Amino acid sequence: MYDCQLYLVTPPTLDPVAFAPDLARALDAGPVAAVQLRLKDVPDDTILRAIDILRPVAQERDVAFILNDRPDLACRSGCDGAHVGGEDMDAAAARTLLGDRLQLGVSCYDSRDLAMRAGEAGADYVAFGAFFPSVSKETDIRASVELLTWWSTMMELPVVAIGGITADNCAPLVRAGADFLAVISAVWSHPEGPAAGVRAMNAAINAA
């Protein structure tokens, strides 16, 4: 069995009150390392309300609650960390905001250079992707399985694989050394519900 864990990213739009029971069912269905709240182009008050409702669901189950894009709001709202991408905030600036206590993840797409610089800036993990076409986020970037192999062989910093990952296609990423698989549709759009999605992903990881 590979030492790989599930990392859930929330759907691009959600009503936090209606979503909270789905999140609870997903987290109760099997091991999950982290939940990332990803809400784009919404007011700060909307993000903070979602954090207030969803963060306890994760943290009460000892699951890290990570906020996408906004280290400043993560610090204010009791999150366990923040995740930044190339269009959000410089990794070093994010590290300064978060201090030593909160986690920092950095999107590095298909770039070894970005990943190494993120590590030097104090990232707690780097993320590569997209590995497959994704219904959640359109991108022309395609990261290679060889990139994961190189990173996991050469570097100690944990690595997240993201982008179109499902129970059917994740095995090569697990075998290549991904520490975490970040998924959206594979869980939240699973035809039998999010709990079934988590069980399917964990079964695929264990079978890889």
Write the layout of secondary structure elements.
Elements (H helix, E strand, L loop, with lengths): L4 E5 L6 H13 L5 E4 L6 H16 L4 E5 L2 H6 L4 E4 L6 H8 L4 E7 L2 H9 L4 E4 L16 H10 L4 E4 L8 H6 L3 E4 L1 H4 L5 H14 L1
Parallel strand pairs: 1-2, 1-8, 2-3, 3-4, 4-5, 5-6, 6-7, 7-8
Helix pairs in contact: 1-2, 1-9
Structure, explained:
This protein is of the alpha/beta class. Helices cover 41% and strands 18% of the residues. The protein is built from 9 helices and 8 strands. It has helices spanning 16-28, 44-59, 71-76, 91-98, 112-120, 145-154, 171-176, 185-188, 194-207, and strands at residues 5-9, 34-37, 64-68, 81-84, 103-109, 125-128, 159-162, 180-183. An 8-stranded parallel β-barrel has the order 1-2-3-4-5-6-7-8, surrounded by 5 helices. It is globular, with a radius of gyration of 16 Å. 2-[(2R,5Z)-2-carboxy-4-methylthiazol-5(2H)-ylidene]ethyl phosphate binds at residues 134-136, 164, 184-185. Mg(2+) binds at residues 69, 88. GO terms for molecular function: magnesium ion binding; thiamine-phosphate diphosphorylase activity.
